[in-house]
Amino acid sequence: MYMRYFSRVLSAMAGPRPVVLSGPSGAGKSTLLKKLMKEYDSVFGFSVSHTTRNPRPGEVNGKDYHFVTREAMQTGIENGDFIEHAEFSGNMYGTSKAAVQDVQAKNLICILDIDMQGVRSIKRADLNPIYISIQPPSMEVLEHRLRDRKTESEESLQKRLHAARVDMEISKEQGLFDTVIVNDSLEEAHGQLKAVLLEEIQKVKKTNMSS
Ligand SMILES: Nc1ncnc2c1ncn2[C@@H]1O[C@H](COP(=O)(O)OP(=O)(O)OP(=O)(O)O)[C@@H](O)[C@H]1O
Ligand SMILES: Nc1nc2c(ncn2[C@@H]2O[C@H](COP(=O)(O)O)[C@@H](O)[C@H]2O)c(=O)[nH]1
């Protein structure tokens, strides 16, 4: 218990707290984090995950994800390269230690966009992030958004909707998230996200000004 306490104190001294953004597929995590990173230049850094899924049109290897084979991912996991990893909708996803270290080395707020299994694993690690859940206004709206995005096959869509129902139930669990934001109006959700992160944003801005 004391070890965990001291490691949290040390990590607080080391730089800004990372941010975990979680929530059902299609809730708007990427949309919100892109908007945040556009508004705040040189404050946030994205933790680029590894995945075995195929890139979508426009996605860039090394920027949106590290797109890898299942074999490469398994080897990385066996070598202890990952803080957490999970199977989601038929593909593997994972946060490497390097992905987080790369952002933290620049003294930026590291943003992790991960599923619920990832949240559970990160809770057991020593990252001490701010946990934010992004939720859709309803299952109906979520389904519309996912269909309109046109990224999923019917099979993948159904898997994601099933995971979403589970996610929406679990996210009500007391103490799991520091904040739950319902992304109905994008502007309002963006405003709420900024408000939650204000203290960390100011910390980074202050450090950047004095360096
Ligand atoms: N507030 C909103 N109002 C209307 N549409 C939205 C809103 N937020 C996001 N969207 C749209 O919903 C779709 C899903 O959003 P997004 O891709 O950001 O979700 P996500 O949570 O990152 O999903 P995934 O976990 O699958 O990556 C996108 O087409 C996006 O443009
Ligand atoms: N546990 C982890 N989950 C991750 C990671 N990177 C992304 N994700 C989550 O996967 C789903 C699907 O993402 P998509 O890009 O295929 O739509 C979504 O909920 C992400 O949050 C990760 O490294 N670990």
Q: Report the CATH superfamily of the largest domain.
A: P-loop containing nucleotide triphosphate hydrolases
Mean pLDDT: 94
Instruction: Using the CA coordinates, give the radius of gyration.
Output: 17 Å
As residue ranges, the low-confidence spans are none
**Number of extended strands:** 9
Bound molecules: adenosine-5'-triphosphate, the ligand Nc1nc2c(ncn2[C@@H]2O[C@H](COP(=O)(O)O)[C@@H](O)[C@H]2O)c(=O)[nH]1
Overall SS class: alpha/beta
**Top CATH class of the largest domain:** Alpha Beta
Main pleated sheet: 5 strands, parallel
Can you tell me the number of structural domains?
A: 2
Helix count?
8
Q: Give the second-level CATH assignment, the architecture of the largest domain.
A: 3-Layer(aba) Sandwich
Q: Which range best describes the helical content: under 10%, 10-25%, 25-40%, 40-55%, 55-70% or over 70%?
A: 40-55%
Biggest sheet strand line-up? 2-7-1-8-9
Q: Give the distance, in angstroms, between the N- and C-terminal Cα atoms.
A: 35 Å
The CATH topology of the largest domain comes to: Rossmann fold
Molecular shape:
globular
Pattern of helices and strands: HEHEEEHEEHEHEHHEH
Per DSSP, what share of the residues sits in E-state strands of 2 or more residues? 15-25%
